[in-house]
Specification:
The protein is mainly β. The chain is built from 1 helix and 4 strands; from the N terminus they run H-E-E-E-E. It has a 4-stranded antiparallel β-sheet with strand order 1-4-3-2. It starts with a helix and ends with a strand.
């Protein structure tokens, strides 16, 4: 099975230019407990890279498997 479409998608709406100052912002969009493995879950997050003018250069959505913290 090809998991790549389930795990990540990205878009490059604008080009990067020489001299651009780039910063990255990430936001967690969902946390889903695993249905079969009680010690882990899936975290979905959206990442944006912006230049010094606030123009979005990259938008990426990603899902990762994380272990739960013992409490």
């Amino acid at each position: 099975r090809d998991w790549s479409s389930d795990v990540c998608s990205s878009d490059l709406p604008r080009p990067t230019r020489p001299g651009d100052r780039i910063h990255v912002e990430a936001e967690i969009s969902a946390i889903t407990p695993s249905k079969t493995k009680l010690d882990r879950g899936i975290v979905s997050y959206v990442t944006q890279a912006l230049n010094q003018h606030g123009d979005v250069l990259l938008i990426s959505t990603t899902k990762i498997v994380v272990f739960k913290k013992n409490v």
